[in-house]
Amino acid sequence: xxxxxxxxxxxxxxxxxxxxxxxxxxxxxxxxxxxxxxxxxxxxxxxxxxxxxxxxxxxxxxxxxxxxxxxxxxxxxxxxxxxxxxxxxxxxxxxxxxxxxxxxxxxxxxxxxxxxxxxxxxxxxxxxxxxxxxxxxxxxxxxxxxxxxxxxxxxxxxxxxxxxxxxxxxxxxxxxxxxxxxxxxxxxxxxxxxxxxxxx
Length: 200
Fold this sequence. Notes:
The chain has 200 residues and is an alpha+beta fold. It contains 5 helices and 9 strands.
């Protein structure tokens, strides 16, 4: 059970990277009071005399705006929009990629793309994850062995972390940064997958 501060007591509230002092009122500071002051999407606990708050992860619906005739993959199935623009709203977690974000095996011709491809395959079909994960680890290790840019190495570490947590879409978006970095230095002109893209 948390020992909440007493009436009129100032406490340090840590909300993300920032820390601020606040005076909270009431006969005794309660969990409900903290939620009222900081918002209901924040979890909280008292650690070393401070109310430490963290933002809750919320699964928001994914809105996908589709052009006429645009293809996309949803949980492994290839779908195509009709002859008008449409908006598809996914209410629960699903694996979805636009056609422009899908890399064909023949396009896997550079080190960064050799990282993107197995991550994409894990995202689209988690049942084959182990085989693609082993390939991903090999390719990422090779890539990190020749890269000295600190920002890109940080992206590599975060890509690995996302894959370990099976957050493959987040990993894919960071893989794009590796591809952009690589293309800038190699002068590579992609035949299919564009450097920039998004899910919605």
